[in-house]
Write the structure tokens for this entry.
Amino acid sequence: MSRSSPHLRLEQLVRHYAGAAAPAVDRISLDLPRGALLALLGPSGCGKTTTLRMIAGLEKPESGRILVGGRDVTALPPHKRHMGVVFQSYALFPHMTSVGNVAFGLEMQGVARAERGPRALAALELVGLSGFAQRKPRQLSGGQQQRVALARALAIEPDLLLLDEPLSALDAKLREGVRDEIRALQQRLGTTAVFVTHDQTEALAMADLVAVMNAGKVEQLAAPEEIFERPATRFVATFVGRAARIQGRLEAGGVLRTEGGAALRTHSSLAAGPVEAFLRPHRVRLLAPGEAAPTGMANVLDATLARRVYTGEIVALEANTPAGVITAELHAGTDGLWRELQPGSPMRLAFRDTDLLVFPAP
Amino acid sequence: MKPTLALRLLACVGYLVLLSPAALVLLISFSAGDFLTFPPPGFSTRWYVALAGNSVLMSALGTSAILAAVVAVVALLVGGPAAYAIARLEFPGRGVLAALLTAPLLLPTLVLGLALLLVLQPLGLAATWPGLVLGHCLVAIPFAVRIMTTAFAGVPKELEAAAWTLGATPFQAALRITLPNAAPGAIAAGVLTFLVSFDETVISLFLVGPRLTTLPVEMFRYAEHTTDPLIAALAMTLIAFAALMVLLVERLMGFSNAMGRE
């Protein structure tokens, strides 16, 4: 195996469920380098969990191949794949203690009896639970159970760590902390990992690579910044992050003309025709009266404030413009202009031509 | 919601109706008289003493207890794997198997007993231990399968999947993970099949012989010919025994829990 070859490779995976017209997973292919963390991101029913279960061997693909470290594992049953899986429900063994849960995996891997105890305890220490070794799962909080599940999966030193919505059962407050811990641990151990989530923030914050999935297909596989800043498809643009939708016709020279009469500059190289553009709220600048648009901000729109939503750090201004309803999000503390504005106030908004994400109209 | 007075009253009446036969038998079992009459002419423990000295009934009690224990073990060993297969595995004919295993429950035991006699007699198995075990298992196994199917189905599939990913073979995962978590069901099935065999009368009537007979059959015969309170003392002993078993299960794990109810 050469160093540059991917650690995990999916080739044209297909999976149908009986009775369903469309395949749950439709010819998915992707490569993941060693030590990287891949997020499978998508709405429910997009095939992300099915993909994860096929990698783990818990479901069989109808066609396609799964390679780990260059080895074809497609035909192997789960117990021969040597992958650590953290289930959404954690799936801790209720009749065993924390340390018993972790040691069970070591036993199944053929670790000598004398070694199991110390190694299981070390794994629990890794997740900060050394004091809870003798507790049964039902005596642990949700966050603690999650860590035991993680310790159990990591203790066998898996070729691949798979996490199925690992944070969804936790309180919102706990989630961020656990998210960062999982990421830190995965990076420290250098474990290649795949995790499934429907939460874009989770995916963007944790992953080296994000695969945005929809209807059984990967819409885009890229680094988080790339996914957010340069979505490859209309679906990615709307699913990841929020954006105002601007409908119109693309004309020669990349000018987007809206029904309301606005002519917006874009960077699009699409052929002339009906298009849909998306504009992220944090990209929109509010201009002071008489202020010239800063260099590079090719688009300026006259607008009327429709609604102002103040949430402390951020203030969202919803404005009616010739391009439709556009939302601008400003840092409430640093940018004071908005304080003067009331619903009905005239205002001017500016943004770059590259801020418009243009796709053919559906 | 607090039960209303009327509801409580109704519950009391219900219990009274349910328990009054047992209470009646309890009083008669301590009768000092010679006949099954109510009210008893006086109280004594003479019929319990007489029971302990009745070698026919005592030997039948021993036979029944051993038979019930053997039946419970066989029913668990046969019914457990069958229940696991029905609850967990996908295979053609699963529904047919489940139906076949519960079919004996639908047949009148009279039919079963007669059929067994017709089959076992030519084989020389009537009135033998194997014959009785077989006959009782026929009615005990469906109970074991039913309870244990529920018990296995109640263990989350993810637990087994987790065990597989950790390197456990399907057999190891079933034995080490699913079975221990279905243990309350297995114990309930064991107790219930024991009691099913212990109480079984109709099939036994066909299959017992002069040298091998069970307690319910002997009780039946005794009550046919004799009308002294000995039979009441025996009935009370059996009730106490059953209650003791339920209590034991309750102590071990909670009876309602063991029966699969939360």
About this structure: The mean pLDDT of chain B is 88.
